[in-house]
Amino acid sequence: MKAHGKSVNIIAHSMGGLDARYMISRLKPANVNVLSLTTIASPHRGSAFADYVLERIGPTNLPRIYRVLRALQIESGAFSQLTRRYMAEDFNSKTPDREGVAYFSYGATLSPALWSAFRKSHRIIEAEEGPNDGLVSIASCRWGSYKGTLVNVSHLDLINWTNRLRWLVWRMTGHERNFNAIAFYLDIADMLAKEGF
Predict the structure, then answer these.
(1) DSSP strand E in 68-191: where?
(2) What integer best gives the mean pLDDT of the chain?
(3) HSE, side-chain direction, 13 A CA sphere, residue 156
(4) Burial of 86 (0-12, 13-18, 19+ CB in 10 A)
């Protein structure tokens, strides 16, 4: 870390929020003073879609799938750690909030279009957990002080990784982009400043 001896506010998306919780709670870096952690669409309680995928693959096929993914240099070991069971029985019980650190969270919801890559995952998660952004439900992303839900924003929109073709089609048909990720993160920094961090 480059923050040697400094106080920091961490803002993390998706699994980055879980990684940050782990670092704060279990690694407890001595060279930095973490004031707050703000997570955005982090699966604090796991994901019904991870449960679904692992059930379909099956425990006997999982090692083979992991070997293939490793051969393709695709990191996948953490996927099984996104199940609701793992998060409830292992991660959360061993990763308590650290005293003196403020925890904030945001979530997002999406109504996927017919061509959306999130259509199937959204449907699976919605049936089990309710409203979601295509990968993480609102119920799962709530941690600490919940600051709000972004509407009609996908899991990838949250990090400004949006399908450029979609925005081109929308612009040609007179639609405006409904979410600005950069402005959202600036708003979080403003919220933290107003909260005294």
Answers:
(1) 102-109, 145-151
(2) 87
(3) 9
(4) middle
- Specify the pTM: 0.85
Distance in angstroms (rounded) separating the CA atoms of residues 89 and 152? 32
Band of residue 90 on the pLDDT scale cut at 50, 70, 90? very high
In terms of Cβ atoms closer than 10 Å to its own Cβ (0-12, 13-18, 19+), residue 123 is middle
> What's the pLDDT score for residue 169?
64
Tell me which amino acid residue 29 is: P
Dump pLDDT digits (tens) for 100-112: 999 999 999 999 8
Q: Are 172 and 165 contacting, i.e. CB atoms less than 8 angstroms apart? A: no
Token pair for 188: 């979080």
CA dist 188 and 10 (Å) reads 11
Please determine, for residue 1, whether its predicted confidence score (pLDDT) is greater than 60: no
DSSP helix/strand/coil, 26:
helix
Q: Which two tokens stand for residue 141?
A: 């992303």
C-alpha distances in angstroms, 50 versus 40, 45, 169, 171, 194?
A: 18, 11, 31, 34, 36
